[in-house]
């Protein structure tokens, strides 16, 4: 029993008319003039590079490299608008004052030289993109409209046999000068129009591969930017910690010690007057005040280095879990004891995560695990609460915790669908 195979032109038509296809056609149309502009920029940069051997054209070369970098910004903008490809701009090198500083900044800009390499590759790539992306589509439309063009602007030619033809297209002596043949060209044009999005995307694959690598930041520049950011955050965090300690000492322990000194002065006066009962009462009050001050100082010191860490991170986390508002199970598997700074960070991170779970999660149980895997230390806190935790939420404490973790070259990830469970992991590089 035979079946008739029917081809549905709907997907082809929708793809041909989609916004993505039109944006890619516009990008392909711009590829040819931009390739010519890029070629001119590369040639001028190359000439200035040769002529700058005598130092006379060095300022011109520096200015031209700045133009090249601006062309890279133009291509990144086109990629974002027309190709939906977002490329982060590479950071600019530091600048020293004066003309020499400006020239050194431009001549040493690796990103500008990478743009030159991209513009050179863009010359043949731009022609291919124009041909397959816009030329294919334009000729397909012409073929589709061939019957109309054939009748509006007829052309006459006599073949080798002396026969006159009214034609628009002829291939190897075959003339499309009749309505059936014209409609055949139109049908071929329709098919080519519907297929036009896919050939246009073939050369765009190369562009999508090259642009992030030549127009975006390099791995080293990203690393330097990250280190600069984490360094600034670590400095600000340390300054904030020092201000907090100073405030707590000034407003707390220092004020209470001053009051204790004044109270001991009263004891001294009472003893001089022979009032032993009043002096004894004041001494008792002073002794209680001294105990409270010592407790306050211990609490302040524990905020810098928890005494529980003296017995190791495993014991400290077990003690921390015992104080949690939610029943917490602890699992620790570390072959070696981490450095003190890493232990302190992991301890305070675990304390903050357990505190957040107790305040917001409405969970019934929490699992806290710490292990070493693939050269990294992983701290994970999982609760069966209501979920919905987001790192980018306004006022989220996890955002600040993530910034502190980044100062140690670590990462914080959160998986928390609405309804739970919530899993928050912190990974730090394991010291060698």
UniProtKB/TrEMBL annotation:
It catalyses: ATP + protein L-histidine = ADP + protein N-phospho-L-histidine. The chain crosses the membrane at residues 34-58, 127-146, 182-204. It comes from Kitasatospora nipponensis. Keywords: ATP-binding, Kinase, Membrane, Nucleotide-binding, Phosphoprotein, Transferase, Transmembrane, Transmembrane helix, Two-component regulatory system. This is histidine kinase. Its EC number is 2.7.13.3. Pfam families: HATPase_c, HisKA_3, Sensor. Residues 341-432 form the Histidine kinase/HSP90-like ATPase domain.
């Amino acid at each position: 029993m035979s079946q008739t195979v029917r081809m549905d032109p709907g997907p082809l038509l929708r793809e041909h008319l989609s916004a993505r296809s039109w944006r890619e056609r516009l990008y392909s149309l711009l590829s040819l003039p931009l390739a010519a502009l890029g070629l001119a920029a590369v040639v001028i940069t190359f000439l200035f590079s040769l002529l700058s051997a005598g130092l006379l054209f060095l300022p011109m070369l520096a200015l031209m490299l700045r133009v090249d970098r601006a062309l890279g910004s133009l291509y990144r903008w086109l990629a974002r608008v027309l190709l939906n490809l977002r490329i982060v701009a590479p950071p600019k090198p530091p600048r020293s004052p004066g003309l020499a500083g400006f020239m050194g900044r431009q001549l040493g800009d690796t990103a500008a030289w990478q743009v030159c390499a991209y513009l050179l590759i863009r010359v043949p790539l731009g022609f291919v993109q124009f041909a397959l992306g816009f030329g294919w589509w334009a000729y397909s439309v012409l073929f589709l409209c061939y019957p109309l063009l054939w009748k509006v602007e007829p052309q006459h030619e006599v073949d080798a046999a002396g026969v006159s033809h009214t034609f628009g297209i002829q291939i190897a002596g075959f003339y499309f000068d009749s309505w059936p043949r014209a409609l055949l060209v139109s049908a071929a044009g329709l098919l080519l129009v519907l297929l036009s999005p896919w050939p246009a995307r073939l050369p765009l694959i190369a562009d999508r591969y090259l642009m992030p690598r030549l127009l975006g930041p390099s791995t080293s520049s990203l690393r330097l930017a990250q280190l600069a950011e984490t360094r600034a955050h670590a400095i600000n965090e340390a300054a904030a910690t020092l201000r907090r300690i100073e405030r707590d000492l000034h407003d707390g322990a220092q004020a209470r010690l001053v009051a204790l000194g004044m109270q001991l002065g009263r004891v001294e006066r009472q003893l001089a007057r022979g009032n032993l009962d009043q002096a004894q009462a004041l001494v008792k009050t002073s002794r209680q005040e001294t105990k409270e001050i010592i407790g306050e100082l211990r609490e302040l010191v524990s905020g810098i280095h928890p005494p529980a860490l003296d017995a190791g991170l495993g014991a400290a986390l077990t003690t921390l879990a015992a104080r949690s508002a939610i029943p917490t199970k602890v699992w620790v598997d570390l072959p070696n004891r981490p450095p003190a700074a890493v232990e302190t960070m992991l301890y305070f991170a675990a304390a903050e995560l357990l505190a957040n779970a107790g305040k917001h999660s409405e969970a019934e149980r929490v699992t806290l695990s710490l292990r070493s895997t693939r050269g990294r230390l992983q701290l994970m806190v999982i609760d069966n609460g209501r979920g919905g935790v987001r790192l980018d939420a306004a006022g989220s404490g996890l955002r600040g915790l993530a910034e502190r973790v980044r100062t140690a070259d670590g990462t914080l990830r959160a998986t928390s669908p609405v309804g739970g469970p919530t899993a928050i992991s912190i990974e730090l590089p394991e010291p060698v």
